[in-house]
Amino acid sequence: MSKHDEAIAAFHQGRSADALHLLQELLDAGETSDLWNDWAAVQLGAGRVSQAEEGFSRALELDPTNTDAIANLGTLLISRGDSARALPLLTSVLPLLPAGQRQIVNAMLARNVVEQLPAGENDSSRGRVLRTLVIADTFPAPHGDRRDLRLLQFLHTLSARCDEVTFIAREGVNRQQCEPLLRQAGIQTYSNDSERLPSLGRESSDSSWSFCELTEKGQFDIAILVQGFSQGISIPEHYLDDLRQHAPGIRIAVFVDELCAAPRESGETTLVDFERAQDWDARQWEIFERADAVLVRRERDAAVLRKSGGKFQVEVVTSDSEVVCPAAALNNILALTPKRYISDSFSVTLVETLFRDRLSPRSGEDRLLGQFECYARLAEQLLREDVLDGDQGQEQDETDNIVAAHDELSESLNDPL
Q1: 83 and 230 assigned to the same domain
Q2: 366-385, pLDDT tens digit by residue?
Q3: Structure pTM?
Q4: CA-wise closest residue to 68 among 96, 88, 106, 30
């Protein structure tokens, strides 16, 4: 039997002093992450919490992927009420834990959130069923960047606060890693929206569910749409109008991880980046004005939005280090009267609406090419209308040049409209 095995056996036999002595000798000979984790576990068993925290932290310094050390440190911290540090650790390691241990950790997370709720805000005293729908581009990756981890933590807090939480990933990226974790927390999941993926140049063979049917039957109280422009058409632009039309009683909140701000001068950056920033900024405000509420993660972002005078509620629900208990935010949103459906399409989806018959038969990259052609046609139409309303001299020449350039482009395409 190795000295390490002797130390483990001594610990299980209740001889903590002997176990620590053996582990210390091994550490003096050479540090490893596993040795520090075991040393800290023995310290914790002996009631020395500070030494245990130091040991688990040292184990993670040597190996940040040590699953046991992550789970042990997270459990220690949450038992001390330090949820700000515990939540990122526990949510990141959950998918890697055995089923039994995963249930224990999920129960700890849920209990921690319930304990933080204001008096009268737990399920038993609330006296009503609260159903929440969350829609994002993809499943949040359990080992992804901070944005993914914040969304994952937010979903966990919602599952403890709400009676029913439904999550839709428009595209099923990260599904294998994340879906079991969400379902373990009691969250119902759907992915690969076959009705919307084609407009992103993607295809889905999953036609087992329909968004409109889901919203009409789901009787949701609140829909939280996660905003991001990296996938072309953002989630709010793709879903908000249909929610208004098919489920007019839902309060719609937009979840914003980062506010978009257009640069003041194009000389500060490249023209492409400048135009992209201007586009995102304009579309962001278009979304906010149609939503009932905007959820942000920083007080300074909330201050900017409140100062703007926009007709939407602003709530802070997350931050870099912790998930703010959403009870107050949810209650404030529930008190709102949902805005009415607006028949005008979002600017980014206008071509999908005006040229639906032309675009619907196309798929993949051909669909994206078709969108480009339709944008050019729409631009031509708008330019012509502007010229007819004003001076037809030099402006007409410029318009003719644009139209001629587009005609040349269309002729070079394999399948022009």
Answers
A1: no
A2: 998 988 898 888 888 888 88
A3: 0.66
A4: 96
